[in-house]
Amino acid sequence: MPGGINGKQLADEAVKRRPVLKVLFTTGYTANAIVHHGRLDPDVALISKPFTYDSLGRKIRALLDEKRDSARD
Q1: What 3-state DSSP class applies to 24?
Q2: Hey, which end of the chain has fewer CB within 10 Å, N or C?
């Protein structure tokens, strides 16, 4: 990406500016900045490629519902 940052760094900065922002990472690689030894970093949402529109929609819906549930607390 431009400026020498990766997607995780961009997402971190975006969430810092807008704390309620939900981020969904997508990757076709098993080794990257958000997966360590087969585990996701805390509070990371990930969908792996290839994915269907249906699975993408379900993942987005789950993130939006999570946001709504958090706002009720």
Answers
A1: strand
A2: C
